[in-house]
Amino acid sequence: MKRAELQQLRVTDHFKSVASTWADLYARDGTFRTYRFLARRRSVLALLAQAGGTCLDLGCGTGEFIPDLLDRGY
Which of 38, 44, 56, 69 is least surrounded by CB atoms within 10 angstroms? Predict the structure, then answer.
């Protein structure tokens, strides 16, 4: 197996292992850990123009920002 193929398998395995719990980090349960993610989301969205445009959501877990981006016309 080539090095690139092995790396791809490692990345895929890692993502599969964390994907099921990633969305839980954005849950509004009031814990400090989820607060950090909600604060990050608020900060990132504040940087984006309200008018829309094109945005690439790359390497962002389960796409938690997608609904907010769509609401803003992206």
Answer: 56
CA distances from 73 to 9, 39, 67 (A): 35, 22, 10
Which residues, other chains included, contact 50 with Cβ-Cβ below 8 Å and sequence gap of 6+?
Answer: 72, 73
For 72, the token pair is: 């803003």
Q: Please, which pLDDT band fits residue 60 given cuts at 50, 70 and 90?
A: low
Residue 18, helix vs strand vs coil: helix
Determine contact, residues 12/4, Cβ cutoff 8 Å.
no
**Against a cut of 0.70, is the pTM above it?**
no
